[in-house]
Structures are given as C-alpha cells and as structure tokens.
Specification:
This protein has 5 helices and 8 strands; from the N terminus they run H-H-H-E-E-H-E-H-E-E-E-E-E. Helices cover 28% and strands 25% of the residues. Strand 5 and strand 6 form a beta hairpin.
Length: 181
C-alpha cells in the first residue's frame, strides 16, 4: 500500500532534505581529486557504486534517502544511481522532469537540479535547490563533487548560485529540474 502524503508532509520532507544537505557543506574528498573519503564513499555506496567514481548524484540521492523521501504518493522520483543522465531519464519517464522554462513559475527548495554539459551532450552534474528568487532567476544549490568555481569535477560539498535561464554553449538550456513535491 502506498502512503499518501499531503502537500504539507511533502514540504516538510523537502525541508528535511535541504537541512540534511546543509549539514554536509564543506565535506571534502580525501585526498582531493580522488572521489574518495569517508563520507564520499558512503554517498557512492548508497547508490551501489564503487568508491572513486564521480559522486554528485550519489550525494543528492543520499540526502533524499537519508530523509526517507525518494518516493511520494506512488511516484519514485529518485532512483539509486550515480548517473545524472539516468536520473533525468527516469524523471522524464515518470513525468517529473521540469524544463527551466516551466520551473520559473514553481521551482522550490528541495527540488533536484540537473546541469547540462554541452561537451558531453548530457546531464552531467546535479544539486539540491536550497532557495529560488523568481524575480532575479537566481537559485541557490547545494552540490556534491563541486568546487568554489562551480565545477562538476570538484572535491567538496558547496553552495552554488546559478541562473535558471542560463544557456549552454550548444544552445541547450543549462538546467532542468526533478520536481520532488
């Protein structure tokens, strides 16, 4: 039987996910550049991926899993994978992948950001939306495997400020989102 969550319950769980992610701010790889470390290894193991692999999606999944919020009202919105593109494919298949254009009206804390990589031609980075300013289009994200410059190949959990209307060098919108409530 699927437990039905009210809008208030979903909002509380999204808030718990963001609070959990905030607790990990500053967590670093050991050594830097290794995709390893006590916490990083745990993130990767949460998605059944061996240590030493890129871990941004494993971080995001681990935050939701730790808050017991990967499924709501019969929809699994995050699957255990370290792949941003597989997560995007899953979200699209269950109807919760939201384009940046559509997200402008409703983006909320606790949604999952997916960042397009023009060079790779796929989603290749992710984070958890902490806040969104619909007037400026800026959103604050907590991201694993990043650095102070916002790289997708970083070494720590950090906050990044991004713009919802950003376009990649290939003309593709830079962001899409997984709606979690």
């Amino acid at each position: 039987m699927t437990t039905q969550l009210s809008a208030a319950d979903k909002a509380a769980r999204q808030k718990a996910v963001v609070a959990r992610a905030i607790e990990f701010l500053g967590t670093e790889e050991t050594p830097r550049g290794s995709n390893r470390g006590r916490e990083v290894d745990r993130f990767l193991l949460s998605v059944h991926c061996p240590p030493g692999n890129p871990w941004c999606m494993a971080f995001a999944y681990s935050m939701f899993d730790g808050a017991a919020y990967t499924t709501a009202n019969g929809v699994t919105f995050l699957i255990p994978t370290a792949s941003c593109q597989l997560q995007a494919n899953h979200a699209k298949s269950v109807g919760i992948l939201v384009s940046a254009i559509d997200a402008r009206r409703k983006l909320d804390a606790g949604w999952v950001m997916l960042k397009w990589d023009a060079e790779l031609g796929r989603y290749a980075h992710t984070g958890i939306v902490e806040s969104y300013n619909s007037v400026t289009g800026a959103f604050l994200c907590i991201e694993g495997n990043t650095n102070k410059d916002g790289s997708r190949e970083g070494y720590l959990v950090a906050r990044q400020t991004r713009r919802i209307d950003a376009i990649g060098s290939d003309g593709h919108p830079m962001y899409a989102f997984i709606q979690t409530a």
